[in-house]
Protein: DUF6000 family protein
Amino acid sequence: MPSQHPAEIGYDHVVESYVTRTYGGLPRYLVLNGGRFLGPRWWHTTRFTRHLLNDAAAITDEELEALLGYEWRSRLTAAWLIGADRRERFRARIGDLLLAGEVCYSGSAHCRRL
Structure:
């Protein structure tokens, strides 16, 4: 699937607002990717989780589509926001992205050689 920067379709704010906003010095996508917020020992867990849930409720479907159409960091963040808000209408779209095979181990048992 081709990638398109959200700014190209009028959503230049979504990456900064939802993907790279920092918590404890780390951008949101890194916190989500590492699962650090799932443990109660991280100092920023409560704040991070509250912001994630608030953003999940506030982000529009169009903004989510802009994130899903970009690169892995934006897609990872969009998937968490979609899941946190239980937006079932995106279930098929996320499934398609998971099977697209654009990164190692997705859609197959072996990493594609680039």
Q: What stands out?
A: The CA atoms of residues 1 and 97 lie 8 Å apart. Confidence is low (pLDDT under 50) at residues 105-114. The two ends are 15 Å apart (CA to CA).
